[in-house]
């Protein structure tokens, strides 16, 4: 089994493409392939989202929160 390295620089390009023109991004997205790269992308985006959420919470802003704790 061949071992592939994940190109971390492409994560930023992929995220910007998905955010700036989502219809073109999903139209051009590969329909077949492995699941490791998308999984890594999802984990990295989750970590960045969690970091942003934590910063907002520490500052007292609850703009990006999905849960409203009373």
Low-confidence stretches: none
Largest sheet: none
Structural class comes to mainly alpha
β-strand percent reads under 5%
List SSEs in N-to-C order.
Answer: HHH
Helix percent reads 55-70%
What does the average pLDDT come to? 81
**CA distance, first residue to last residue:** 52 Å
How many H/I helical runs?
3
Shape: extended
The number of E-state strands comes to 0
Q: Kindly provide the radius of gyration, computed on alpha-carbon positions and rounded to a whole number of angstroms.
A: 16 Å
Molecular structure report:
The protein has 70 residues and is an all-alpha fold. Helix content is 61%, strand content 0%. It is built from 3 helices and no strands. The model has no long low-confidence stretch (mean pLDDT 81).
List the keywords.
mainly alpha, 70 residues, 3 helices
Secondary structure layout:
Elements: H1 9-20, H2 22-28, H3 36-59
Helix pairs in contact: 1-2
In brief, what are we looking at here?
The chain is an all-alpha fold and 70 residues long. Helix content is 61%, strand content 0%.
